[in-house]
Each structure stands twice: as structure tokens, then as C-alpha cells.
């Protein structure tokens, strides 16, 4: 029988279906105990409506694989960061036309206001040019920003650092 | 549940859409919500309820821009910011209910729905800033700047809360609020330092929300220094003037807002979809 972890690792994100929850860094732990399987996940953004779908998909995948007793738990701390997206997850995003995030900002103490979006070297996932501009830090899902490539004129999404 | 196209997603039977009546799982499922010893559970519940009410009402006001924003990008931005705050509200209301179940109206709904949809205006504890009617885009940007600057400072304090749940909600919220504050500040600067007309309207927006600023610091005046520093930076960059302090009118805008927000839940308490 395959391990519960192997099954849980195949479940994909409802909004970024090219990524598994493991690629996204949302799957924090899978433990097989005498009472059943305990899966721990963490939300990307607090308002992310995909959490319920993730839970349902994990239950269903594990039940189908023969694990009858499954408990999906939420953990909020430490807060999810895009740094947890795996290298393979980053490759899959880029192949799907979504620019992967660079390193998330770190720091303690007062958070500086940034009146001008800091220049970022985000490569266009279509043509590879680094000549891209930010259109909006908010896009079709909570986790993405909208950019445009100045070289090929194509708009594209970018998983923003958090 | 992954779909090849959006239409397939719309016709799927057993889904969980985000609206009243969808039977969501407890957003705190699996978290240890025991109130740490030495902490007053009723006081913790009150803090979470107040923070949750601010987020819920502000989220509703932001949602009013959906289908009415000047550009699609801004509509998406305002909807996203509203969604982040709605997420914070869900967690905070659920946390408040777990800490002190006596605050939850006795209706057959989840704790968060009962608190959001079955309390009357008098039982909400939000600051009046978030109730204000949207006004034009400049008023909304001024309000969002003031709100997110204050809330970001507040949440930065709360990461040290002895309650692990509240501390974790605050830590996640900080990352979101940082984007919200930058978004609002950039618009305030762009409009303030724009044309004569945009400057005039942005200044009017700041003037409209300013009477509601003092109330934000009633509970914790120590947040004021950080707030003032950030606002001063934005005012300077936007060539805007910080208005003198004026007392706010006592008008309440909450009743009509709740009448709309709660109407479906109250008319059809057993609705599912």
C-alpha cells in the first residue's frame, strides 16, 4: 500500500492545478498514527477560499487510497511564505506561463512604506525578456500580481512574494 | 477538484462556494483554541470581536466597488483586499466565539455566520471609520490608507499576544496589510500630486475621513507615532495637507450597511447552495 504521504503529495491546488499542495508548500505534515492519518495544511492568504476545496480533495484522495480515518488540520503559524514553493513547483509555474516568486522580504520591526514599487527582475514566462513592468499587485487570485512584458507585449501573472 | 475550464467549475455539483449558506468548515479546524491560563477569556474574545468587526465592515465597503471601480485592475485590487479582510474577519470572529461562546447569538449557524449575520448594529464594535459610505474613489483611497496604516501598526503589536491563535492571525495579516497600505498610499500620492482637479478631490477625500482618525487610538495611543510618521510621508509625497483635528459627526452608517449585508441570511436562515 502506498504511504499516506505519497497520496497526499499528489493532491493539486484548486486554483493552480499545475502544482501539488506539496509543491506549493501548503502541505505541512502527513502523519500516520494508530488512529488514522493526520494531514496538516496552512493557508496561503487568510481569505483564500481554496482551503475548503483543499481539505475536501485531501479527504477524497486518501479515502480512495484506502485510508478510512483522515483528519485534516489547519496550522496558521509559522505563516505561509512563497519561499516554501519547491524548485519543481517553480518550474511548473513557469511552464504554465506564471512567473514564479523571488525571495520573500524578510525583516523585523517597522515595515517600510514603499511608495514606488521596487524594480524587480521578473522574466517574462513567454519570451524570457527581463524588460517587464508591474500592472497591478493584485490579480485573479490572492497570490498573484499582474505584469506585462515590454518586449513581446504579453501580460502575464507573477506569484508575488509574501 | 481541478478544472480544464471555468465553465466546468461552475457546473460542478458538490462544490463549496463562498457565500452564506455554504456550510464552511470551521476556519480554525484542528487548531488548539484553548485560552492560555492567566488570560481573561472574555477580554480576549472582545479584542478578537472588535478586530473582526473592523475587518468585516471594511471588507463590505470595499466590495461595493466591485463592478463600479474606475478600472478593471483596481476593481480586482479592491476585491482582493476585501477578500483578505474577510478572511481575517472569519478567523477573528471564530476565535472570539471559541474564547467566549456566550457572545454568539443562538441561531443554528456556524459561529462566524451567527456573529456576522445575526447581530444588530448596537452589538457591532467596529470603528466608525469603516462604516462611512464609500464616497468617490479619493475618499475610499483616503479611508483605505488610514485604515491599513493603523491596522498594520496594531497587528504588529499583536504578534506578541499571549494567545497563540491571535498572534498567528496577526502575523499572517501583517503580510497582507503591507500590500494594502502600499496600494492605497500610491493612489493617494498619484492623485494628490496629479492634476489640479485630482489634487483637489484627493484633499477633499483626506478631509472627509480625518474626523474619524482620533477614535482609532482610543484604546492604544502608542500606535499613533508610527501612524503619524507614515501618513506624513504620504502627505508630503502627495503635496497634501493633513487637516486639523475636528470632532466627527455622530452619524451612524452601520444600519443600512447591515440591512444589505445580512438580508439573505436573515430572510433565508436555512438556505444552502
From TrEMBL, chain A:
Domain MIP18 family-like, first and last residues per copy: 9-64
The record's listing under Pfam families reads:
FeS_assembly_P, Zn_ribbon_PaaD
Residue limits of the PaaD zinc beta ribbon domain?
A: 115-160
Q: Which InterPro entries match?
A: Fe-S_Maturation_MIP18, FSCA_dom_sf, MIP18-like, PaaD-like, Zn_ribbon_PaaD
| Cited SUPFAM superfamilies | Fe-S cluster assembly (FSCA) domain-like (SSF117916)
What superkingdom heads the lineage? Bacteria
Name by which UniProt lists this protein: Phenylacetate-CoA oxygenase subunit PaaJ
Q: Which organism is it from?
A: Kibdelosporangium philippinense
Q: What is the lineage of its organism?
A: Bacteria, Bacillati, Actinomycetota, Actinomycetes, Pseudonocardiales
From TrEMBL, chain B:
E.C. code: 1.14.13.149
Q: Which UniProt keywords apply?
A: Oxidoreductase
Could you tell me one molecular function GO term of this UniProt entry? Answer: phenylacetyl-CoA 1,2-epoxidase activity
Q: Name one Pfam family in it.
A: PaaA_PaaC
Q: What is this protein called?
A: Phenylacetate-CoA oxygenase subunit PaaC
Q: Where is the signal peptide?
A: none
Known InterPro entries for this protein? Aromatic_CoA_ox/epox (IPR052703), Ferritin-like (IPR012347), Ferritin-like_SF (IPR009078), PaaA_PaaC (IPR007814), PaaC (IPR011882)
Taxonomic source organism: Kibdelosporangium philippinense
Amino acid at each position: 500500500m502506498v504511504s499516506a504521504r505519497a497520496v497526499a503529495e499528489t493532491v493539486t491546488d484548486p486554483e493552480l492545478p499545475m502544482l501539488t499542495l506539496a509543491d506549493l508548500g501548503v502541505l505541512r505534515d502527513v502523519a500516520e498514527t494508530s488512529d488514522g492519518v493526520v494531514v496538516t495544511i496552512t493557508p496561503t492568504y487568510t481569505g483564500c477560499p481554496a482551503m475548503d476545496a483543499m481539505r475536501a480533495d485531501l479527504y477524497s484522495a486518501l479515502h480512495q487510497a484506502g485510508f478510512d480515518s483522515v483528519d485534516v488540520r489547519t496550522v496558521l503559524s509559522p505563516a505561509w511564505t512563497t519561499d516554501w514553493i519547491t524548485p519543481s513547483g517553480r518550474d511548473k509555474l513557469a511552464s504554465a506561463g506564471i512567473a514564479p516568486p523571488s525571495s520573500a522580504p524578510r525583516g523585523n520591526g517597522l515595515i517600510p512604506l514603499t511608495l514606488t514599487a521596487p524594480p524587480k527582475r521578473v522574466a517574462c514566462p513567454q519570451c524570457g525578456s527581463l524588460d517587464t513592468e508591474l500592472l497591478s499587485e493584485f490579480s485573479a487570485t490572492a497570490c498573484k500580481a499582474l505584469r506585462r512584458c515590454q518586449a513581446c507585449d504579453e501580460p502575464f501573472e507573477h506569484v508575488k512574494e509574501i | 477538484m481541478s478544472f480544464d475550464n471555468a465553465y466546468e467549475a461552475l457546473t460542478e455539483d458538490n462544490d463549496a462556494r463562498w457565500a452564506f449558506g455554504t456550510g464552511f468548515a470551521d476556519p480554525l479546524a484542528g487548531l488548539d483554541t484553548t485560552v492560555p491560563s492567566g488570560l481573561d477569556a472574555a477580554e480576549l474574545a472582545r479584542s478578537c470581536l472588535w478586530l473582526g468587526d473592523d475587518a468585516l465592515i471594511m471588507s463590505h465597503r470595499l466590495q461595493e466597488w466591485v463592478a463600479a471601480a474606475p478600472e478593471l485592475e483596481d476593481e480586482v485590487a479592491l476585491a482582493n483586499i476585501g477578500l483578505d479582510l474577510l478572511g481575517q474577519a472569519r478567523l477573528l470572529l471564530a476565535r472570539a466565539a471559541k474564547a467566549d461562546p456566550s457572545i454568539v447569538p443562538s441561531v443554528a449557524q456556524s459561529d462566524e455566520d451567527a456573529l456576522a449575520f445575526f447581530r444588530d448594529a448596537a452589538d457591532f464594535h467596529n470603528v466608525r471609520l469603516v462604516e462611512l459610505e464609500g464616497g468617490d474613489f479619493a475618499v475610499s483611497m483616503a479611508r483605505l490608507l488610514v485604515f491599513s496604516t493603523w491596522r498594520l501598526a496594531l497587528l504588529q503589536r499583536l504578534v506578541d499576544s499571549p494567545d497563540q491563535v491571535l498572534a498567528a492571525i496577526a502575523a499572517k495579516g501583517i503580510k497582507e496589510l503591507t500590500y494594502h497600505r502600499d496600494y492605497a498610499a500610491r493612489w493617494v500620492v498619484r492623485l494628490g500630486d496629479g492634476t489640479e482637479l485630482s489634487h483637489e478631490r484627493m484633499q477633499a477625500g483626506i478631509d472627509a475621513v480625518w474626523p474619524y482618525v482620533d477614535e482609532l487610538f482610543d484604546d492604544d495611543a502608542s500606535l499613533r507615532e508610527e501612524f503619524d510618521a507614515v501618513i506624513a510621508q504620504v502627505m508630503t509625497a502627495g503635496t497634501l495637507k493633513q487637516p486639523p483635528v475636528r470632532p466627527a459627526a455622530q452619524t451612524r452608517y452601520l444600519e443600512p450597511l447591515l440591512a444589505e449585508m445580512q438580508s439573505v441570511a436573515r430572510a433565508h436562515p436555512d438556505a444552502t447552495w
